[in-house]
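Sample log: Subtilisin-like protease fibronectin type-III domain-containing protein.
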Amino acid sequence: MATAHDSGAGEISTSGPSQAAGIVYETTTIDLNFLRDYGNNTSTTKVISKDVPAGLVLLVRRTRISLAPSIKTMKYSTLCYVLFLILFDAFLVESGAAGGEKDGVYIVYMGAATEHGSSKNEHAQLLSSVLKRRKNAVVYSYEHGISGFAARLSAAEAKSISKNPGVVSVFPDPVYQLHTTRSWDFLKYGTDVKIDLSPNSDSNLSSRGNDVIIGILDTGIWPESKSFSDKDMDPIPSSWNGTCVEAQDFNSSNCNRKIIGARSYNGPDDDDDEIANTPRDMNGHGTHVASTAAGIMVPGASYHGLASGTAKGGSPGSRIAVYRICTPNGCAGSSILAAFSDAIIDGVDILSLSLGSPASRFSDFKEDPIAIGAFHAVENGITVVCSAGNEGPSEKTVSNAAPWILTVAATTIDRRFKSNVVFGKNKVIKGEAINFAKIGKSPVHPLIYAKSAKKAGADEREARNCYPDSMDGKKIKGKIVICDNDEDINSYYKMDEVRNLGAIGAVLVDDKKRGDASEFDEFPMTSISSRDAVEIFAYLNSTKNPVATILPTTVVSQYKPAPTVAYFSSRGPSSISRNILKAKPPDIAAPGSNIIAAWTAYDGEVNDKGKEIPKFKIMSGTSMACPHVSGLAAEIKSRYPSWSPSAIKSAIMTTASQINNMKGPLTAELGAIATAYDYGAGEISTNRASQPGLVYETTAIDYLNFLCYHGYNKSTIKVISKKVPAGFACPKESKADLISNINYPSIAVYKLTGKHSRSITRTLTNVAGGGNTTYSVTIEAPTGLTVTVSPTRLQFTKNGQRLSYHIIFTPTVSSLQKDMFGSITWANKKFNVRAPFVAGGR
């Protein structure tokens, strides 16, 4: 029998709709709150719709839409409608199909800021004209590195301004999300600082970083955390030009020689919603990220006794500059650009952003505040590191795709949180979760499969997946419930449903989330694999009165295999620019699953159980992976102060590992061998990255040519960049295929058909010091593709010397049916410099 999964509401009726329905479901204008749940603030919604009532305030949630409020009254088939609305929302935002009769906040991007000249004059004139029409129209003005402003405009005003020759783009102020695997509502957990069980075995980088400044664009900071003590630190670097702003709950004394600066930026609607403009972190995410990147060593760190050890950041000696850009209303693009502009003049060395747009909302680079801000930061010598997003394992889901950004995927570590299921005659099945269950070690509690508790008239699929309003509470009460997870709906919704029905515990059957333990606090809930579930289902079917229990969490160290690519980590290939093997897929991977780090003392909840608010918490997401790389970049910058952002990026990428702790290849969440689409160049290596031997330097001309190949004309590029040399012109016949030729530490070539060959060039710079040294090439090529390199040996005689080589890709089959992966490695007796490649026929 067909269900709503097959036919939706059913076959259309030609007569029914013309008759009086009696009752109808009417989606009202106030259902614009749906747009709030998908990340749009009030201003953006006013741009999208002309029917926004006066006084409507939308409090935006940080991450992807939360279905918690509505799922309790919806059948599963209704989720299809939700998906349609999500896609329609994305269409409205990207196509500009919004009604134009209401005001909204727009970002006016005018390229690179200059101290003198026409650009500065045009900026001043446009600002003046906007202020003449409306006194409080301007939200932010960007004058350092970036030229432009954010202002409240009508659609007609925005369109008029966009025609100004000094304007690159005008677009509605977008709202970005934090890249954790939990929504704002579930941000009760931690982000990521490395737990070092043997702190005396630090790498040779650990004492460096004293004069390097890491800027953290996030939710702020909790300065009282021990991770941010400035004990024994040197004076603040003389290069620092920033400030420590004061707020009602944040004083200048909260800054020190560790936290040397703090700024905050309210979004367009935050003041109306009475959100305090303060650098203090009332969320926890920013504190966790900052301590992951640069927290000092703190012995005795743990989360309620779990994962105990010494917590430290990737660059304990580096300084932290805080830019609080995210509030409960989201992370406004206008605030992000303001923070970039200030960070450039403040003098930071590294910028770390653990946030981005949803995969469905791809924007052109000139309409993406993170891409814009990062471009100008890199022009000013700042390395920008961003998280890749948490929409894996689906393809084409990575955000922050611009080639000037170092984009980070997430992997698991060799620590797991075990919460086993005991059933029958003390038979044990391995489970994974974080809970502090207290229901005993003996299997005495009744056990039931949710499918067997199906409510009369409910859908069987919904019942076995523990959907709301699908199970009979009388059959659930007092039992441990086994739930499937076919649709990958958030496990917290399942927990709430069975707990509300009186269940005393739950077992989730889920293969995807290995290495990413969900936290259920004191509710006894754990996750098991489908393979192990076979055994427990056999027991259920053979026993009249099945019983079980769920054990509280214990920690397993030195788990194998590790690392693996985290299931949630967004994947490639690029949906914006396939001809560069980078942020779609990511550039690099780093630990991002179940990471422990510093936390805010404000938990956001009433602690009615008397449990102490933890000083460290556990969290997963590419948000957690990003600051690992930011810290590593800071250590390299400290060792080599003159290195460019692209040299630092190359050092991290070309020294990455593709091997796990079992000496086998890195795998994905279900055990399949991972590819560059999953992890970019591989897992970071903290030791090898400090001595890469050779680097691929992506020059300013490379980035300008990239813009040419991406379709920008010379006039627009001259406005965007302050480093356009005299006589620069876009190469003739600029097209996307030529992007393969920019000097990036990875290679991507597509449209390889028949016996047609593609030739590209790469240039390496010697950074290993003087003296003669010769590198030989090793090619790892898949069957069906011939890869030749010329020359096969590179001989360097001095430091800083640049030598080029050519690569020819030739298919040996008539058609490449799938993308193929390989690598080109240059090695001498000391260094191995690896560049991954992908080739495809599409």
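Observation: DSSP finds 19 helices and 38 strands in the chain.
Observation: Residues 3-7, 11-101, 182-207 have pLDDT under 50 and may be disordered.
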